[in-house]
Write a structure and sequence with these properties.
The chain is an alpha/beta fold and 349 residues long. The protein has one domain: Metal-dependent hydrolases (TIM Barrel). Helix content is 35%, strand content 13%. Strands 1, 2, 5, 6, 7, 8 and 9 form a 7-stranded parallel β-sheet that branches. About 4% of the residues have low confidence.
Amino acid sequence: MRFDWVDGHLDLAYIAAQNGDIREEPLSSDSRCVSLPALRRGNVGVIAATIFVERGPDAADRPWGYRDECDWDGANRAAELQMSYYETLEREGIVRIIRTREDLSDDRTTRLLILMEGADPIRDSTDAARWYERGVRMCGLTWALGSRFAGGNQSGGGLTSAGRDLVAAFDELGILHDSSHLSDLAFDDLVGATARTIVASHSNARALLGPSERHIRDDQVAEIARRGGVVGLNLYGRFLAMDREATLHDAVNHVRHIAAIAKCDDVSALGSDLDGGFVPALVPPELRGPDHYDSLTNTLLSSGWSTQTCAKFASGNWMRVWKNSLKNERAKDGRDRVGPDLGLLDSSR
C-alpha cells in the first residue's frame, strides 16, 4: 500500500556538499541513499531539511565546518552556504521552502521545512530573528558535542543562561524545539524553560538499546506526547540494534515502542537521517532509500496497525505538529525573504 510521506530529518545540503548534487541519482548505490528523484519516487512530499554544520579541527576547512563553539563567524558562514543551497533549489522551482502554514499545504512541489541541527550559527537570542526571516522553523540547541547554549548527548550539561534566552526567543518567534541531540540534563532543563511543543526529530528508544543519551528515554517520550510533539524514527542501523546488523523489524519495533509509551498513535513519526554522515550499508537492507519507506507501513499493517494509524506515522503526525507551530503570514511586501545567492554547495570548495 502506498502512503504520502513526511521525513522529519534529512541533511540534504550536507549530503550535497559531501556526495554530489542531490538533484541527480548517485553514480553508485553504495555512496548515498538520498536524491530528489528517489524522494519523489517514494512519495516523500515534505522534508525537514537540515542546516547541519560540523564542529572541530578536522572539519574546519570544509564547506560545512567550523572551528569550535566560539567560532560564530565560521559556523554562520557554513550555515549561510547551506541555506543558500536550499534557496537556490527554490529559485529553480525544484522545492518550496515552508515559511507559513500556506506553504505547508502547497503540494505542487517538494516542500522543505528548514531545521537547524545545532544552534552555533545563531550568535545569540537577538540573532534568532535573522534566521527566522531566512526560513528556519525548527531548531535544536546543540549537536552531540554541546554548544554555548546547551549540553549535548556526548558532552553532558544543561542549558546555559544564553540557552535559556534562546529558548525564550524561539518561543516568541514560533521556532519549534528539537531535542534529539540534547543531553538528559539539557532536555530536562528545556522542559522547565518552555511550555511549548517539543519534538525529537530523529531519535530511537533507549529502552531497546544501550544507555547512551543519544537515544530517548521513555519518560521523555511521554513528556513529548503530553505536549503534542512527535518522535522521529532514525534509520541508522547502529541506532536500531546493538552488536549486529539492524533489520526492518528492528525499525518497526522502535515505532511500536514509542507508540506504546505515548499511549496513542499521534507521536510516532519518521526522521530517517538517511546519509547523516554514514553510508547506505549501515542502514537496514530493506530501507536504504526513501523509495522503500512503504516497507515500514506494510510491516506495521501486517502486524495489526490500521491504515489510519499508519497514515499518521507516515505523514499525519508531522503535518499536525507543523500546522500548529507555523504562522499563517508572509512578509509585509508579500515576497519570501531570501539571502544572497552564494551558489550551490560543491564538495570541491
